[in-house]
Specification:
By secondary structure, the chain is α+β, with helices and mostly antiparallel strands. It is built from 11 helices and 6 strands. Helices cover 40% and strands 10% of the residues. The longest helix has 16 residues. It is globular, with a radius of gyration of 18 Å.
Length: 243
Amino acid sequence: MTLSTFQRQLLGLDESALLARGSQQLQRPVWAALARLTEAATEEGFQLKVASAYRSYDRQRNIWNGKLSGERSVVDDTDRAIDMTSMSPEECFACVLRFSAMPGASRHHWGTDIDVFDAGAVNESYQVQLSAAEVAVNGPFGLMHEWLDQRIAQGRSFGFYRPYDKDRGGVASERWHLSFAPLAVDCQRECSADLLRAVWSDKAVGEVSGRQELSQQLESFFERFVARVAEPPKSALEYLPPA
């Protein structure tokens, strides 16, 4: 299967549509919308910062392989480490997929999605974990996320919304994850199980741990952990960046 430029961008294999600022990369319209959201946050006393933006296919593959091999920790919904040594491959996949996407299926490949935190709520030496405890009501970033909830509900989030706003039986709730709807909706529509199989079969991009077992049930895992996300609010979809 010959991949188009857009398909390569969906998979995190092509960065030509991205604009770098510091150590982060996003599509240009996302940077513009983020600047407006950051300004609005500053006016309310928050220091909205990006913990993670674009992530390449290779980076996601390393995360995936590391978690399945035991080199990286896998945690449950309460941030406790999971021992997967006695689990079946399918059970291991489900544990990893609660918080980490399959290579090629991460929304961070698109340059439309970001993980955010309130830098003003912690000291400079604090290591952001992107955990449920941090974004809970009494967590260090809870107040900023309550403010974000209100902005999204009011249609004043400059195109951003939460794809993982609640647990739908697939990916766990991730309040820190924001998606720029005007661009992300097209990426989500074009991402497919067949596209993942195509890139995984290319030895040039590296081996994916558990590929054979994962491929056998890919449609099921894709529906549960990739397609099962929140619908973007109409106001977010219709946001138009300033000319």
